[in-house]
Design brief:
By secondary structure, the protein is an alpha/beta fold. It has one domain: Dehydroquinase, class II (Rossmann fold), CATH 3.40.50. It has 5 helices and 5 strands, in the order βααβαβαββα. The chain has a 5-stranded parallel sheet with strand order 2-1-3-4-5, sandwiched between helices. The longest helix is centred in the middle third of the chain and has 16 residues.
């Protein structure tokens, strides 16, 4: 069984309390449960993680890229949070590892502040999803499963 990696960046540990009018009331534990159910429906194992540290995300992306090369991973669903708009290091990790990545945002970043309109991840992502709220994670799992066939 291949693994779907779901990596969450800075401040996503605050889901449910941080700006609920934008991100909703669901917690990161709710997101993980949703992803676990979606992975089970698509025959995937789940590796779900969150960090507030950019370097840790880089290491995880590299690990997942190696697992994908070995045929053990379907790819990565990456909600990099604010690092989406600032991190050349994440761009380079994705590009260098060859990992299949779906860039995901809970909110529609293009309807928000101008600084959120640019992504360093999009040019190296297989797909980009934004604005579906927390249910977007389940959609991303389904998409990742389909890409891996």
């Amino acid at each position: 069984m291949k693994t779907a990696f779901v990596f969450n960046g800075p401040n996503l540990n605050l889901l449910g309390t941080r700006e609920p009018q934008i991100y909703g009331a669901q917690t990161l534990a709710d997101v993980e449960a949703l992803c676990r159910q979606a992975c089970a429906e698509h025959g995937l194992a789940l590796d779900f993680r969150q960090t507030n540290h950019e370097g840790e995300l880089v290491t995880w992306i590299q690990e997942a890229g190696r697992a994908q090369t070995q045929g053990k991973a379907a790819g990565i669903i990456l909600n990099a949070g604010a690092y989406t708009h600032t991190s050349v290091a994440l761009h380079d990790a994705i590009k260098g590892s060859g990992a299949r990545v779906i860039e995901l945002h809970i909110s529609n970043v293009h309807a928000r502040e101008a600084f959120r309109h640019h992504s360093y991840i999009s040019p190296v992502a297989q797909a980009v999803m934004a604005g579906f709220g927390v249910p977007g994670y389940a959609l991303a799992v389904a998409a990742l499963a389909g890409m891996d066939r």
